[in-house]
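pinging the channel bc i need a second pair of eyes. not urgent but kinda urgent?? the chain im working w is below, pasted from the shared doc
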Amino acid sequence: MTKRLTALDVFRGMTIAAMIIVNNPGSWRYVWPPLRHAQWHGWTPTDLIFPFFLFIVGVSLSLSLSRRLAAGETGSRLYAKIIRRSLILFLLGLLLNFIPRFDLAHLRIPGVLQRIALCYFLASLLYLKTSRRFQLGLSLFILVGYWAVLKFVPFPGQGADAFSPQANLAGYLDTHLLAGHLYRPHFDPEGLLSTFPALVTTLLGVFTGEWLRQKQLPLNVKMAWLAPVGLVLLGLGLVGHSFFPINKNLWTSTYVLFTGGAAILMLSLCLLVVELGGYRKWAYPFLVFGTNPITVYVGSSLLAKLMGVIKLASNSQTISLKGFIFQKLLAPWAGNYGGSLLFPLFLLAFWLAVLAPLYRRKIFIRI
C-alpha cells in the first residue's frame, strides 16, 4: 500500500476533533461525564482519545518511513528529519505549557505533544534499526515489566495499593525528577515512567501499518484479520483489569491492550466505510482536520488560552472573553451543559473555515 490512506486521515481527524472537544469546554463545571476522563481506575470515551492518536502516529510512521526507504532516502537524512520533527513537537508542547503564565520556574515539562514527540522518536528509531520480532518482544517485555515494576519495586511512602493515586512508583519518580514541573504537585499523567507503555501503544500502530502494507493481500482480507485482533486485545485488557486496572493516568498495560484493541477496531471501521464502501462526503471535516492535525490542535489550544486571558467588563465585574461567550451567549440559549459543549464545537467550526481552503488547495502544514 503506497498511496495515501484516506481512512487514516479520517480517523486522525475524528481523534483531533474529539481531543479539542474534551479539552476546551465552555466551563469545566458543566461537562457531561462521557466527556471527562475517569478519575483514576476505569475509562470513559474521553480516555480513548490520546491512545488513539499515538496509535495513528505509529501507523503513519510505518507507512511514511517505508515509503521513504523504498524511494532510496538515506538513513542520515531520515534520522535528521525524525530528530527535527521530534524536537519541534516537544518545543511546541513546552510553549503551550508556558502560555499564559510565562513562569519558567514552574513550567510543566511533560505534556501531550511532548509524549507524542518521545513516542514518535523512539518508535521511529526502533522501526529503522530493529526487526519486527524484536519490536514485538520489546512490547511484551514492557507490558509485563511495567506491571512488575509498579507492583513490586519498593519506594519511600509506599502503601498497600501499588496502583493508588496517593502513592505509586510513577508519581514518586516524577516528583523526585521533575519536582515543580508537573501537572499536579505529586504526579503527571504524561510522566516519565508511563511513557514506556505509551511507546507500546505507538508500536501497536506500527504493527498495524506494517500489516496494511502487505501488497499480496487485498484490503478486505487485511480487515478480516484486523478486527479479530482488535477484539482479542480489547478482551485481554478487560480481563486483566481485575489485577492491573485499566488506568489512563498510569497508562497501565491493560489500558494499552484495551485502547489498542479499540483503536484497531475503529480504524477497521473507517477502512470499511471510507476505503471499501467509498463513503467519503460525510468525512470532509475530518479530512480537513486529519491532514493538518498539529495546526488544529496547537491553534485551538492557543485560541482558547487567548480567550481565557482577554478580560471584559460585565455588570461591574471583570470576565474573560471565554467566560463572556459561555455565560452571556451560549448558556442562556443552550443551557449550562449544552453551552459548554457548544464552545469547542464553535472552535472546530472556526478552524474548519480557516483550513478548508488550504485543504482544497492541497496545502498541508507539516513539521
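so The chain has twelve helices and two strands. and The mean pLDDT is 93. — does that match what u expected or am i reading it wrong
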